[in-house]
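Morning. Coffee machine broken again, so started the prediction first thing and wrote up yesterday's gels while waiting. Chain of 171 residues, entered below exactly as on the submission form.
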Amino acid sequence: VMDIALIAWFGGREVLADRLTTGELLAFLVYKGMPVVVAIPVVVIAGALSGAFTGVMRVAFQVPSFITTLALFTAYRGVALQLTGGFALTPFPSWFETLGGRIGNVPVPAFVLLGVFALMHFLMRHTTFGSAVYAVGGNEEAARLSGIRVGLVKVLVFATLGGLTALSGIL
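Came back before lunch.
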């Protein structure tokens, strides 16, 4: 996950706020009756939107992403406290525990890691977006002069980080 941020020269602290609040959001959605199989993609999309917001703040207003992340972290923790009332929301379906379990001797998150790795490898090596990320990370001005929409690439990188961070927070 962090490699895409490092390639695009953004650092990696931006993921903190999303990861620490996705569990509460997932618990709240399930507590309110949303099926877990629906709630998980909703939480990942919410993480991507949060990342995109951080990217927009960085690109449009030149607010350092670290500052945006700290502000969002504070806001998210407040929202999580309001949603949960400060208490654990239970019960989750028993099968949900398998996300942290094992298949044979291999932890389930290892399979998720392999899936994400394959997806990101394909995205970075075989798509225009991946080439644009490398170009922006290598020389932002040259990328801009060659017609790459640098701001859009940055926002999409932050959105990708947000979605993947939400996924890791779920696990």
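Residues 21 and 77 are 7 Å apart (CA to CA). Going to sketch it on the whiteboard this afternoon.
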